[in-house]
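Protein modeling request. Please complete all fields; requests missing the sequence field cannot be processed.
Requester role: graduate student
Desired output: 3D structure, token encoding
Chains: 1
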Amino acid sequence: MDYGPAALSDSNDASYSSGVYSTLTCAEGPSSSYSPDAAAAAEAAAEAQALRKLSDSLESIFELPRAGSGFSFSDATIVAADGREVPVHRCVLAVRSPFFGAKFSGSQSGVRLEFKELTEDFGVGVGVGVGVGFEVGAEALVVVLGYLYSGKVKAFPKGVCDCVDEECLHVACRPALEFLVQVLYASSRFQIPELVALYQRRLLDILDKVAPDDILLVLSAANICGDECHGLQAQCLEYVARSDLDTVTLEKGLPCAIIERIISARLEVGVNIPERINFPDKHVKRIHRALDLDDVDLVRMLLKEGHTTLDDAHALHYAVAYCDAKTLTELLDLGIADVNCRNARGFTVLHVAAMRKEPNVIVSLLMKGAQPFDLSPDGRKALELCKRCTKAADYMESTEEGKPSPNDKLCVEILEQAEQREPLLGEASFSLAVAGDDRRMELLYLENRVALARLLFPMEAKVAMAIAQVDGTREVPLSSRNCKDLAGSLRMHMDLDEAPFQEQHLKRSIALSRTGN
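Delivered output (517 residues):
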């Protein structure tokens, strides 16, 4: 079948003529008198039918290249922030969008555009500084570009707007909100006012269901989009002003001018916000600056002044939210902070880590005694908070053998294992208590099971071993690269027959059992 431009044109002409004839015949009949109203209605119906046909045809030339059919007139490529490529047609985009009209003017066939480059100097992103916009994934980019081709607003892609929490309605969870914001941002950047208005309306409809921290994401996007999203910005400002978000959180996510407006609004309306939230202590600020510099020694010196403590400064919360894992580990090693301390808003350090979704950070806290069952102010455990922030598509993403799982999935699994830790410990203790002389064989089996996991799934095994506090395996050198070699090398480096099954061996078996599970 010929899908060339001429074929598409002929098809539309034929459909148009057929539509006019059939509509006129039905409206007037073969022998009826001419009616201007009936003719106008027939013409409008024929035009609507022709537009639908045109929309479907343009939609097909946008979708077929991405489906790998080999049929394509595409002469340009737009690369989403996640690295995936979307084939496009310069003539279509240039006609439909003034932005692309200017961008493709004088360009050659085969041009490749990075979305990051398209959004330079467009505004301020969330916590990333001036001149940088939001990262827009391929799914959101396809929705916006698809609208330029067909004029149709697509349904939300499954898995992209859903979180992992099965009890969530996926209306205002983090994945759904991020998708809406990405589409809004791309629509504004590509100068598509009708799409901006539509997604602004959708965000306004769910704003009362959005968590305060996530409203900052919407507010930042509305601020970037400017006058087009004035209504959304005003509504977000009102919600944030009435929330318990502290100044430190605001400073990390918003421009200074917006923060000043929020503080002024709080003072004007007399919102009951504690003084320390709006105006943090100067000594606390110094500790936070030292953490920004990853200088734990400076933190130790500031603490010697005696003006405050790590818990009063909520230093662990700050380090978990904004610093790297190494800085947090050094701070924890000081041994003078309560790992289960709650901040002014009622969140524990582990709650903040669960929302950040960094595996090493979560493991560090769990190893220092963070409680996974503590509830947040809205009644959720760390695992539930992490699930609400995790996109279903990322969680379900399959990985090849030997490659690490996505960080989001790993965080959920770490917290799940942490909740099951005590039952597993009891089961392992009971199993080893009745094992008798088979204890040595069980330890040998567990050592090699963990070693095999380290060969096939190095990242997951590393995290699991850190949780269980296992420093390594003793049965097979990790230089072994072949699973068959591993099976033939089940030999302990330590001789378990030289002494009775001592307490340290029992503890190691329990730790290895927890790691393997």
